[in-house]
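Hi there,

I know you've been waiting on this one. I reran it after we fixed the sequence typo, so this is the corrected version. Both the input and the resulting structure follow.
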Amino acid sequence: MNKNNKRNSREIQIAKIALIGATIATIGDGIAAYAAALTLDLLENPETETRNAQSSELKTAQAQIDYYINELIQVRNSL
């Protein structure tokens, strides 16, 4: 029984690590898609007003990324 408990505990830890990895990958994909959209917008609309709006959007996106990173750190620390 003790051997099974250790195995189950290890499998749970592995599953948690896999979840963290998948979450990081998903966030990375979202960041890449957002960067591609900003680049396309910049190429289509090179005006200064567009750049100012994008700067504001980037600050918002950075705040969201920081939030998710902090959440992942908390999850990692709980392991």
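Quick highlight: DSSP finds two helices and no strands in the chain.

Best,
R. S.
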